[in-house]
Amino acid sequence: MNSLLPEQAADCAVLEEERIVLKKSLSPFQVWTLALGCILGWGCFVLPGIRFLPQAGPIAACIGFILGAGLLAFIALSYGKMIEYYPVAGGEFAYAYAGFGPTAAFICGWALALGYTCIIALNATAIALLTRFLLPGVFEWGYMYTIAGWNVYAGELMLLSGAVLLFGLINYRGVSFAGGAQAILALVLVTGVVVFCCGSFFAPTAHLDNLRPFFAQDVSPLGAVAAVVAIAPWLYVGFDTIPQAAEEFDFPPNKSTFLMVAAILLGGGIYALVTLGVGIVIPYPELLAANHVWATGYVARFTLGSVGSIILALTVLAAILTGINGFYIATSRLLFGMARAKFLPECFNRVHPKHHSPHCAVVFTMVVALTAPWFGREALNWVVDMSAIGTVIAYGFTAMTAYRFMAAHPTLPGSGRDKVYAVIGVCTSLLCLGLLTIPGSPAAIAIESWYALLVWCGLGAIFYMIRRADLKSMKTEEFSTLILGKADMPIFFKRK
């Protein structure tokens, strides 16, 4: 623990008293559905036909899901320890500060802010995919322009903007309201997956031979599995929304570990079930060769008729909306935590007097997300691929801080075991970072994503330099009080 001089302790006590905190109102079930709903976004239902089966094959994809879930579960164990000792809004931003100082905290927070906002945007644009499949032409009116091969229509703009505005309003009303909506949508999502899988697995044409070849052709088995493992941080992004809302738990923070691991493992199981459900009804090479607009939708209609289309539509819509809602919660809490530490303008630190929500941060998130439909889906994919790097960086910071914490507290129960978990988490982060960034990797991001990354890094550097003088003048005790809640919380860095 840090020792403070009497005058420092007095100043920090005033800061601690003035520090704005969020109301504790989230139940364990709401928190669990927050994570699960964010993990199971549109990708669970869209990617089987465009990535999992063509690039990996059904068995390779399932192996990748299992390995990815296992590796991310180790990272979640480190997250659980950090939540237990640092139960504050901001999550990885706060952990990066505790381990490596203010600059690392800013880098981590800046990377995550983009990643979370992009996921809101991409989930919103997934509604357009859903309507183009189920209601072709209904919203495709008022053609405006084409960007990266994606036609932008005024009708879809209005629809997508409406979804973003709706969940912005829900989150403006407070986390209890948003958490209740998340729980209902998550139940609809899981129920829909069960019905879809039952329809596929018990279809008259369903047969294990339809899953051959188990591994994608023209790709080595190792490469096929690696193609899925590499994007595990993106597939399971969402469990890390839990630490963002840690300040609002109405239960002991040590329960969060179980909630995160359970969400990851169930999410991995659902990814596998949906992918197998798509591939088992008819030989999946034939399914892919037919070049259906949406392979999962075709299978649902093939097995359950028009009812299947409706059930799947409701399921996917629930998945999309849980993603939008959950990442609204995460993004606004991250911005709130960064503003409370004076990294961002003070307005993001304001809490609504009636709804107890960080309403300015919610409104800002909404405004940024509202720009997404104007760029088209393909352009957004570049940004989202880039944001996966930011997510991996956040995972790495958290695992490294967890290692430092345990190394500094060897007498804590299970500290040796937790150090091993942290090492595995760091190695997982480095592995995924390498797979995303090394040219020739099966999951290497496109050149357009690199351009987007450079632009975002440049903007972050400019913003940080603007704030650098003020941040440099702040004392470590002040940072610790604002970010971690108390000046004497354990930190593992030294400022020059």
How many separate helices?
Answer: 19
Q: Strand order within the widest sheet? A: 1-2
Helix content: over 70%
pLDDT averaged over residues: 88
User: Could you name the CATH class?
Assistant: Mainly Alpha
From the alpha carbons, calculate the radius of gyration and give it in angstroms: 22 Å
Count of domain modules? 1
CATH topology: Amino acid/polyamine transporter I
Shape: globular
Largest beta-sheet characterization:
2 strands, antiparallel
Q: Spans of 5+ residues with little confidence (pLDDT < 50)?
A: none
What's the helix-strand series? HHHHHHEEHHHHHHHHHHHHH
- Structural class by secondary-structure content: mainly alpha
> Percent of residues in beta strands?
under 5%
Name of the CATH homologous superfamily: Amino acid/polyamine transporter I
What's the CATH architecture? Up-down Bundle
Features:
single chain, 496 residues, mainly alpha, Amino acid/polyamine transporter I, 71% helix
Describe the fold and architecture.
The protein has a single domain (23-483), classed as Amino acid/polyamine transporter I, CATH 1.20.1740.10. It is 71% helix and 2% strand. It is built from 19 helices and two strands. The protein has helices spanning 6-18, 28-39, 43-55, 58-85, 92-100, 102-134, 154-172, 175-201, 221-229, 232-235, 241-244, 256-279, 284-289, 295-340, 359-370, 377-408, 415-437, 447-473, 476-484; strands at 143-147, 150-153. A hairpin with a 2-residue loop joins β1 (143-147) and β2. The longest helix has 46 residues, at 295-340. The relative contact order is 0.21. The mean pLDDT is 88.
